[in-house]
Design goal:
Layout lengths: L23 E6 L3 H12 L4 E7 L2 H11 L3 E5 L7 H11 L4 E6 L4 H10 L3 E4 L4 H12 L4 E2 L1 H11 L14 H11 L4 H8 L3 H15 L4 H10 L9
Helix pairs in contact: 2-3, 3-4, 7-9, 7-10, 8-9, 9-10
Length: about 240
């Protein structure tokens, strides 16, 4: 793993004294230890990148970024002490030379928009390939924004007034729509909780709300009603 030497390259650094391009310094922030270590090792293998720090929550990410001044911060969406969007807003305000790319498990519309409003330079799913992640890091380091292809499609549908690819004549929140899509895929409550990074109790509440709003009695009937409305593809269940 490449590590910082006498000190990390400051944001905006372009070349070393020998004329060689300076590496893009990266701070990785995630509250899941195994994912944090894995992502750190992955970034350290990328040509032109240098990992300068690891943070286990949003507040620590802000503190380390102030001290290390990385070019790019890879920020998990949901973390203790400060959420990803909250940490992004602080970093953008206090370290304008540092770009933040949000990395998360699920393409949550609300999180995406909060991250964008906070000033994120990218939003990458945790299932993205090494090449996709590297492109997002380099784009952010160059002052550009790069978002996951699936998320771009969701933006397009959302701003076209069609958040889930169809018209759903029910008053569901964005999170309830996500739960409905997962429910239609046949995921159990614990599986949905893992994918959404929330508690099983929270998922149970969302499922109950969805079933109530759709006026049905079972999970299967909820999925069927959504497909009839054109929201979910016929093979979603």
């Amino acid at each position: 793993m490449r590590t910082a030497g006498a000190g990390p390259a400051r944001p905006g650094a372009r070349a070393s004294e020998t004329g060689t391009a300076a590496p893009v310094t990266v701070l990785v922030a995630d509250d899941h230890e195994l994912f944090l270590e894995g992502l750190t090792l992955l970034v350290a293998t990328m040509d032109g990148c240098e990992v300068v720090g690891m943070a286990h929550d949003g507040a620590q990410a802000v503190e380390l970024a102030k001290r290390l001044a990385p070019r790019v911060v890879l920020m998990d969406a949901r973390m203790p002490r400060l959420s990803g969007p909250e940490a992004i807003a602080r970093l953008v305000a206090e370290l304008p030379g540092t770009a933040v790319v949000m990395v998360t498990m699920f393409a949550d519309d609300e999180l995406v928009f909060h991250a964008m409003r906070a000033g994120a330079k990218g939003y990458v799913l945790k299932g993205a390939s090494k090449a996709e992640l590297e492109r997002a890091i380099m784009a952010a380091a160059n002052g550009e924004a790069l978002f996951d292809h699936d998320i771009v499609e969701r933006f397009s549908r959302y701003f076209a007034g069609d958040p889930m690819g169809g018209t759903l004549p029910f008053d569901l929140t964005p999170r309830e729509r996500e739960v409905l899509a997962l429910l239609a895929r046949g995921l159990s409550n614990p599986a949905m909780a893992r994918e959404l990074q929330v508690t099983t109790k929270t998922v149970r509440n969302h499922v109950s709300n969805v079933i109530g709003k759709l006026g049905v009695g079972t999970r299967q009937e909820a999925a069927a009603k959504a497909r009839e409305a054109g929201v979910l593809p016929p093979d979603a269940a």
